[in-house]
Amino acid sequence: MEPILQTLTDLNIPFELQEHKAIFSEKDSEDVVITLPGIDVKNLFVKDKHQNYGLVSMDLHKRADLKKIAALFGYDRLSFCNPDELMQYLQITLGSVSPLCIKADVSCKVKVLFDQNFQNQKVIIHPLRNTASISLNFSDLCRFVKECRHDWIMGDVYKVE
């Protein structure tokens, strides 16, 4: 079993797994049928000019409001991190970002922000590779993040359309 899936099992966190073709973006996911229950999640790794980092997990099909997200984190204007920063802080490559990456942030440099709509739901995330998805209870994901010595905040992260 993959190390991250073994970690979830060791923490008694139940999940369902589905293999699929590689998904690098929302566009790539258009022809992939995920049959797992839950909200499809996209993850943004962001920073401000002071090198404050944040991992945002939100509904795949909605648009992020970076001003709202910056305010929730208490950061200045946000930009997206580059692949080198992804590897440095989360030990992951583009397309495979997941809240499970927080396990790699042993220095607790990265803040975590979850979409407030995840409460009492199942979420669908990558298990640290973009060729599979897992579904798990959001409360269990929060427990995983806590086990990784991180706190999280929840909020409204969306642009008003």
Quaternary structure annotation: single chain
First CA to last CA: what distance?
42 Å
**Number of DSSP helices?**
4
Helix-and-strand structural type = alpha/beta
Share of helix, binned? 10-25%
Q: Mean of the pLDDT scores?
A: 94
Instruction: Tell me, briefly, the overall form.
Output: globular
Biggest β-sheet description: 8 strands, mixed
SSE series? HEEEHEHEEEHE
Strand content: 25-35%
Please mark out the parts with pLDDT under 50 across 5 or more consecutive residues, or reply none: none
Number of strands: 8
Q: From the alpha-carbon coordinates, what is the Rg to the nearest angstrom?
A: 15 Å
Overview of this structure, please?
- The protein is an alpha/beta fold and 161 residues long.
- It is 21% helix and 26% strand.
- It is built from 4 helices and 8 strands.
- The protein has helices at residues 3-10, 66-73, 83-90, 138-147; strands spanning 16-19, 39-47, 53-59, 79-80, 110-115, 122-125, 132-137, 152-155.
- Strands 1, 2, 3, 4, 5, 6, 7 and 8 form an 8-stranded mixed beta sheet that branches.
- A hairpin with a 5-residue loop joins β2 and β3 (53-59).
- The longest helix has 10 residues, at 138-147.
- It is globular.
- The model has no long low-confidence stretch (mean pLDDT 94).
